[in-house]
Amino acid sequence: MYKGEQNQPERRGIFITFEGGDGAGKSTHLQLVAEALRERGQEVVCLREPGGTIIGEQLRSTVLDPGNYIMTDECELLIYEAARAQLVAQIIRPALARGSIVLCDRFTDSTIAYQSFGRGLERAFVERANNFACQGIHPDRTILMITGGDAEVGIERATHHKHADRLEMAGMEFHARVNAGFAQIAEEDPARIRVVVSNESKARTAAKVFAALSDMFEWMADGSVCDEDFFKMLLMKRDSLSRG
User: Fold this and answer.
1) Average pLDDT of the chain?
2) 6-20, 72-86, 174-188, 189-203, range with the lowest pLDDT
3) Is beta strand 141-146 parallel, antiparallel or unpaired with respect to 193-197?
4) Interval 79-133: pLDDT, tens
């Protein structure tokens, strides 16, 4: 089923990923971008990694379960890649082929940051595994969100309303290495990756995210449209949907 879809013409859609350490605000700002694009008539597909498919969500539960503390680093990497391979073939490639805008909470940069910089697996091997799972699909733009503080700030944000998962429990030294990895990845690919510091209000951070996408969506650079009231309205709508 999915193998045939791989022979479709070159994609017409746009693939944007949101990256960063835990608690940086990726999910919130992905949702705000999605809502704004939908209001302008765009088809938007929102995804998360690992996950996004039935198989991917099952793998997510396994890899993030604190009870699986004996999981090896190599096993962890291959679970992420398996979930990604399914997501690319089943959801991302078909969506891009029909012209959708795909927004994904984490993708290959997270694997390099967490499994290579964080766990210490050979980066060249991790990159080969990423390429194998991605089947030629790569982000057009990546928003790298950082807290502006140390790793502890992000973990406190991420676990404020829930119990920590297996990755969040990996320790501050691990998360410091992850954050350093993201910083290096961004330095290596400034054309694709735009860094946004989420150390202000959500509305002001949203304005910075939209500015980082304004070369792809010209209306996002229009101050008469994307003013502070616009971002507050998006946040109110998001909160209303979350409560609903």
Assistant:
1) 90
2) 6-20
3) parallel
4) 999 999 999 999 999 999 999 999 999 999 999 999 999 999 999 999 999 999 9
- Tokens 């709508």 correspond to 237
Whether the Cβ atoms of residue 66 and residue 166 lie closer than 8 Å to each other:
yes
d(CA 181, CA 115): 10
Plot region of 182 (φ>0 → left; ψ -120 to 50 → alpha; else → beta) = alpha
Q: Which of 157, 202, 194 is CA-nearest to residue 175?
A: 157
Contact 164, 112 (CB under 8 A): no
Instruction: Please tell me the CATH superfamily of domain 2-197, with its number.
Output: P-loop containing nucleotide triphosphate hydrolases (3.40.50.300)
Widest distance between CA atoms in the chain: 54
Say which residues have a Cβ less than 8 Å from residue 199's Cβ, sequence separation at least 6: 147, 148, 149, 205
Enumerate the domain spans of the chain: 2-197
Residues 6+ apart with CB under 8 A from 41: none
pTM: 0.89
**Contact (CB, 8 A) for 144 and 195:** yes
Q: What are the φ and ψ backbone dihedral angles of 135, each rounded to 5 degrees?
A: 55, 40
Rg of the chain in Å (alpha carbons): 18
